[in-house]
Amino acid sequence: MTLTPFLVATASYLLMLVAYFLRKRRAFHMLVMGATIAFDVSMPFFLVTHRNWWHRLIEQNDILSFLVWMHFGLLITMYALELAQVITARQILKDVPTARATHHSQGRALLVVRGLVILTGGFLAEPA
Ligand code: HEM
C-alpha cells in the first residue's frame, strides 16, 4: 500500500481548515466542505477497489485489531457529523435561528473526529 491516499486526505484536511476559518466567504465554504464530504464518501470505494482488503483483514487477521475498529468507529461518527452539518447548513440557508450555533459546534467536533480518522488511517497504511 502506498501513502498517497493518506497524503491527499491530509491535504483535504488543511483545505477544510481554511474553509472553516473562511466561513463568511459562503460560496467558497460550501464548495470546499461539499467537496470534502464527497471525498470522504468516495474513499472507502477507492480502498475496496484498489487494495487487497481480503488479504489484509482476513488472511492477515487485521480484522481483530483494535486500531481497525477504532478507525471504523471514528469513520461512522464522522459520517454522522457530516450528515448533521449538511442538515444544519440547509437550515442556516432557510434562516432557522438556532441552526448557526449548532452548525458551529458540530463543525468543531467534526474537525476533531476527521483529524482522528485521518491519523488512524495513516497508522493503518502500509508504505509500498
Ligand atoms: C456541505 C457542507 C456545508 C455547507 C453547505 C455549509 C454551509 C454553511 C453556511 C451557508 C454557513 C453560513 C455562512 C455565512 O455566514 O454566510 C456556514 C457557516 C459555518 N460553517 Fe458550514 N457548511 C458546511 C460544512 C461545514 C463543516 C464540515 C464545518 C466544520 C468542519 C463547517 C463550519 C462552519 C462554521 C464554524 C460556520 C460559522 C457558523 C457561525 O456563524 O457561528 N461547515 N456553513
Polypeptide structure, described:
The protein contains five helices and no strands. The protein has 128 residues and is an all-alpha fold. It has one domain (4-124). The longest helix has 28 residues, at 66-93. The chain is elongated. Residues 20, 23-24, 26, 29-30, 33-34, 37, 85-86, 89, 92-93, 100, 103-104, 107, 110-111 line the site of protoporphyrin IX containing FE.
What's the order of the H and E elements? HHHHH
The gross shape turns out to be elongated
Radius of gyration: 16 Å
Number of helices: 5
Small molecules bound in the structure, each named once: protoporphyrin IX containing FE
What structural class is derived from the secondary structure elements?
mainly alpha
Q: How can the largest sheet be summarized?
A: none
Strand content: under 5%
What is the share of helical residues?
Answer: over 70%
Query: Roughly how many Å apart are the termini?
Result: 5 Å
Weakly predicted, low-confidence segments: none
Query: What's the β-strand tally?
Result: 0
Overall structural domain count: 1
Q: Average pLDDT across residues? A: 95
Q: From the structure provided, what is the oligomeric state, counting identical versus distinct chains?
A: single chain
